[in-house]
Here is the input.
Amino acid sequence: MTPDEADHLKSKAHWVWRETLAIHRRAPETRIASSLSPIEIFVALYYGGVLRFDPQEPLADARDRFIISKGHGSICMYPILADLGFFDREELMRVCMRGGILGGIPDPIIPGYETVNGSLGHGLGVAAGTALALARKNAGDQQAFVLTGDGELHEGACWEAIMFASHHKLDRLNLVVDDNRTSMLAHTKDVVSLGALDQRLESFGWDVVIVDGHDVEATTAALAAMKARREGRPKALIAKTIKGRGVPGLENEALAHILAPKPELLDALMETRP
Here is the structure.
């Protein structure tokens, strides 16, 4: 990656951060803290050349599949999809409003979203099935990606999918864990500790890498390398992130998931520069 390319990714990440704050300012029912931790992951996937997609034909058969299992925490995807031409930028002004297509919980009415993403714990299974289907079709180098939160991995269905993927040697499956260590009502370790998550996944036969999820260069490189590996094992990238990143009162707060920053704080933060 050249210095100019790295600067471009960093600039996009900060722009998405500000735009996400602006969306929450207009639609306070959106989950802001959960949507600030995966920003660099989305930027790496969409601007870093990792995912294969076509904004003019979002369901093109040749695309990579990306299942956003933690849908409530992907409001930061809205400005990215608008910027890339999946839908008109004016939709960003109608989030959670009558007549708009962008809700507090995204669904497939939004170009660029593959699945309904309300109830947690299902996305990994869908992605595993998708990866199996791509393998059975011998679909070139197409792959399936899925984003979950670490709290979502408390769901038993996730571990069924983890075992299924290993059993079927799904090396077209790429799991990205937004590991912000905070679930809905407490820090994850105080609800059900996942311990050394990398070792747990490895014990199930997965290929696992850990990265600083807010280092957009490192995250892009790790995602690209993960996609390139095809060694008969499903792959996972554990991205260490911060829930509510950049917003005082949300960072490292156990209840960040359900807190809403004051409008005047959001206004001040949106004036910040990289």
Notes: Residues 3-269 form a domain with the Rossmann fold fold (CATH 3.40.50.970). The beta strands are 65-68, 144-149, 173-179, 207-212, 235-240.
